[in-house]
Amino acid sequence: MVTSAVRGRTAPSEPDYIARAEALAEGFAARAAEHDRAGSFPFQNFRELSEAGLLSLTVPAALGGAGAGARYATRIIGIIGKADASTALVLSMHYINHLVMARSSTWSARLSRKLARETVEGLALINALRVEPELGSPARGGLPATIARRTETGWRLTGRKIYSTGAPILKWYAVWARTDEAEPRVGQFLVPAGLPGTRIVENWDHLGLRASGSHDVVFDDVVIPLDSEIDVRRPEDWRAPDATQATVHTVFIAALYDGVARAARDWLIHFLRARVPANLGAPLATLPRVQEILGAIEARLAVNARLIDSFAGDLDDGVELSPGESNAIKLTVTNNAVAVVEDALSLTSNHGLTRANPLERHLRDVLCGRVHTPQDDSTRIGLGRAALGL
Fold first, then answer.
1. Residue 252 belongs to a domain with what CATH number?
2. Single pTM value for the model
3. pLDDT (0 to 100) of residue 136
4. Tell me: the pLDDT tens digits for 172-207?
5. Fewer CB atoms inside 10 A, N or C side of the chain?
6. Residue spans of alpha helices (H) in the chain
7. Do 263 and 161 belong to one domain?
């Protein structure tokens, strides 16, 4: 692959993959409303992403992928997020897992190579299944109810995961579970999709990100090999978050919701130029109040772009970043994104909430940013406690 110097390091050349993403995004955007309305999964989008080589973007170049880092990946996520937020969510989870694989010492080299090869050669996506009905998000603590029982020949996995984004298309699950040992350990186990005892309960019917296929996945005594452990530790060893996973996750999620806000901004500009009220006799775009609110939108998006690009670049350059700082980036970018869409609605009135227009979908999608881990209250409490030395 042709490489170029980026911020003092060797990195994949971006223009070709950016162009591929932009070309695909046009079709994704055209299909997004239909998938949203039906709650159907956009399988075609992922076939096209695979054929374009975009699923292996964050797979290391040594293993056949593009070897892209966080800065490059956030640009792709932003492009896809602007077209179809649900597709971008599934894609971002897949990218996160491959970046963590590449940078983590806990993944076995054999499993990393296997998953990389499958992603390069075909349609093979992975996501981490962590959330449970009783536990909620593991980010808030607690032991999972999903249990891995060790036998002489393998692990036997039993439990239920909710919000399993991309469930209809995933080939691999990284399942958060606890062992049945006298002193339980907690961590991830790699599970191939479709094993006997595994079933998908298609119950995802959400306000936003409706095409993300975030259904429940149930494991009923599913047998996996003994070497399926990814990273299993004592519960107390998980008190400090995985810095790589935490920082990559937050900046990718930020890029996704920023993409949604940019789609709303673009539609708004078209509307303001085209809408000519009879009592005004000129486009809404000519009103100073409209120009001021649009200027506030531009300011928020400019801040978002700088935060995402700078933070992702630092991550690629090996700058030591704290989970608190990355959480603050996610909080700021997602709240800016929500404000952008709300400001757009303030200028469009009923037109913005009409289902024939995309703005109401962008509103529903962007609101999911506030409940996406890490939630705002956790971030603020963590930052406040750190400032107080507690």
1. 1.20.140.10
2. 0.93
3. 57
4. 999 999 999 999 999 999 999 999 999 999 999 999
5. C
6. 15-38, 43-51, 70-83, 85-103, 109-121, 243-274, 288-316, 323-348, 350-353, 359-367, 376-388
7. no
